[in-house]
């Protein structure tokens, strides 16, 4: 549900401020990156409409913010996230067919599924901790789980739970784990990695 409020504080140097909701005294943090229209500089007393989100520090903040009268644009920043979910689905389809054809051991498919389920629940736990203000799960742990084969679960969690889906530095490392996983599978099927694949198939 979209919220509406008045911009009561704005730090031009650091590009953030606070919106006071129209129907209550609560103040919501907003960063300039949250605005769909970044060409316009926010001014005090601007009326802002926005959606609620939870920041990396666990506090409520605004996202998809627009100035009164402007239309919301959801295209910015979401394309890469949706693509990662489609890629995860395609990955499972391809690896499932490869396992059925005997090109990869079925245990490898089950390993990816198990790692993805575990990673999804760890993301959910981290978001729950963020909402409660509890001690957070480190980003290195989330990336490690993705690197171990849980990246499809991480991709789904980022979009379904709306967690860790906006932070660019985090997303860059996440995509690095995706590339490493896919490259590793391709290497197993190459001439240099074929003996390792033969050993896995024989197990």
TrEMBL record:
<dbReference type="InterPro" id="IPR011129">
    <property type="entry name" value="CSD"/>
</dbReference>
<dbReference type="Pfam" id="PF06961">
    <property type="entry name" value="DUF1294"/>
</dbReference>
<keyword id="KW-1133">Transmembrane helix</keyword>
<feature type="transmembrane region" description="Helical">
    <location>
        <begin position="109"/>
        <end position="126"/>
    </location>
</feature>
<keyword id="KW-0812">Transmembrane</keyword>
<feature type="transmembrane region" description="Helical">
    <location>
        <begin position="173"/>
        <end position="190"/>
    </location>
</feature>
<dbReference type="InterPro" id="IPR002059">
    <property type="entry name" value="CSP_DNA-bd"/>
</dbReference>
<feature type="domain" description="CSD">
    <location>
        <begin position="2"/>
        <end position="67"/>
    </location>
</feature>
<keyword id="KW-0472">Membrane</keyword>
<dbReference type="Pfam" id="PF00313">
    <property type="entry name" value="CSD"/>
</dbReference>
<protein>
    <submittedName>
        <fullName>Cold shock and DUF1294 domain-containing protein</fullName>
    </submittedName>
</protein>
<feature type="transmembrane region" description="Helical">
    <location>
        <begin position="83"/>
        <end position="103"/>
    </location>
</feature>
<dbReference type="InterPro" id="IPR010718">
    <property type="entry name" value="DUF1294"/>
</dbReference>
<dbReference type="InterPro" id="IPR012340">
    <property type="entry name" value="NA-bd_OB-fold"/>
</dbReference>
């Amino acid at each position: 549900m979209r919220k509406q409020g008045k911009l009561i504080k704005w730090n031009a140097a650091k590009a953030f401020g606070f919106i006071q909701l129209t129907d209550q005294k609560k103040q919501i943090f907003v960063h300039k990156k949250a605005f769909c229209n970044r060409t316009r500089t926010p001014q005090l007393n601007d009326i802002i409409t926005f959606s609620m989100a939870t920041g990396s520090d666990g506090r409520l903040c605004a996202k998809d913010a627009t100035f009164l009268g402007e239309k919301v644009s959801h295209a910015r920043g979401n394309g890469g996230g949706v693509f990662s979910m489609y890629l995860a689905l395609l990955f499972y389809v391809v690896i499932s067919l490869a396992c059925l054809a005997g090109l990869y051991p079925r245990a490898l498919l089950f390993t990816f599924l198990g790692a993805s389920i575990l990673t999804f629940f760890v993301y959910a736990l981290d978001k729950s901790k963020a909402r409660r203000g509890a001690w957070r799960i480190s980003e290195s742990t989330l990336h490690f789980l993705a690197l171990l084969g849980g990246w499809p679960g991480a991709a789904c969690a980022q979009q379904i739970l709306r967690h860790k889906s906006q932070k660019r530095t985090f997303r860059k490392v996440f995509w690095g784990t995706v590339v490493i996983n896919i490259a590793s599978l391709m290497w197993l099927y190459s001439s240099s990695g074929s003996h390792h694949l033969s050993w896995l198939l024989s197990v």
